[in-house]
Amino acid sequence: MSDHGAPPNCPLCGRPIPPDVAQSLHHLVPRLKGGKGGPVVRLHQICHNEIHATLTEADLARDYNTIAALQSHPRLARFIRWVAGRPPGFRSKTPGGRRPARRR
To answer: What is the pTM of this model?
Structure first.
């Protein structure tokens, strides 16, 4: 039995991603850190925004290059619990603000 036509689920939050909902592809290893041509996952735009507001490209490449690792990050885990009760098309500014800028 096939669920042909059912929208895919966001691997981060588990909610469906209907075609009319803001979405994007996330490189599990950032392109600038060697991930060009590597695995990508389709996420809700709000989920993708939260990942990049939380983690640096270096953090993503080194420690958070799988969905399970992303889900284990404390801030992302809180976000996932928060967004899980929202409808698939829910849009919001990134609730926690962006990560602090790094000094050079």
So the answer is: 0.82
